[in-house]
Amino acid sequence: MAVFAAALAFVPLGFAPAQADVKVDATYEISIAGWGIARATLDFTLDKQGRYEADLFMRPKGVATIVTAVRTTVTAKGSATRGRVLPSNYTVSAEEINRPVSVSMQMASGNVSALRARPPLRERPGRVPVTNAHRRGIVDPLSSGLMPAQAADARDACDNTLQIFDGWTRYDVKLYYKGRRNVQAEGFSGTASVCGARWVPVAGHRPQKPEVQYLARNKALEVTMVPLTGTGYAIPWGVKIGTPNGEILIEPSAFSVTGTGV
Fold first, then answer.
1. pLDDT-above-70 percentage for the chain
2. Closest CA relative to residue 74, chosen from 13, 143, 148
3. What is the pTM of this model?
4. What would the mean pLDDT of 257-261 be, rounded to a whole number?
5. Residue 235's closest CA among 61, 1, 10?
6. What stretches of the chain show up as alpha helix (H) in DSSP?
7. How far is CA 141 from CA 90, 119, 133, in A?
8. Confidence at residue 155, expressed as pLDDT on a 0 to 100 scale
């Protein structure tokens, strides 16, 4: 679950580290066309010094267990201070498949400093090469979900172009504000902001592939953001992705935030 992300080049004054350790424990249900296909658990912490750690574990459920037993673990850590999100480590590990999938990536000041991704990206006709320039000024997919936001409903989190590198490909997600909605799950209720999104491939993709063209044209992309009160940041509540086979929906069945407030 790659949730959406932001790296800001210009940082306004007014941001500060959390005044208390903030912890989020969430269980996300993932469905397509109303059919539950996976469940993910998120364990996220942002401490007083602005250091964050995130652990995401996803496993199939329902009918999806018939065709796959893959369980995926994603971790990220870094710093979030004065309105900037600067990851330092990102890992991905997919278990119980014949062909191992893994990423180990280290970053410094928004730039990739070390990378190991398996399987490697294969050379194919028409693929846009990934250069060192594409590995600069980025965030990883999991860290990208932590976005600077000062508004009480996190609407300013939608005012971002997110620059993401996942270990293989580099892409942008352009966000824009669509409106507000009330959200509720076990352990949480409040007001959230809905961001529309457009996906823009940058490098590592094959632009002529139908899947790439469809996603680049897709206007049925949304991410709903909730604020982490007193921190100057927000995280995703849910994601919607329109597909020819029905809408992919990622939303929590349980969502607990502790330690917020100044």
1. 87
2. 143
3. 0.88
4. 79
5. 1
6. 64-67, 210-217
7. 9, 18, 18
8. 96
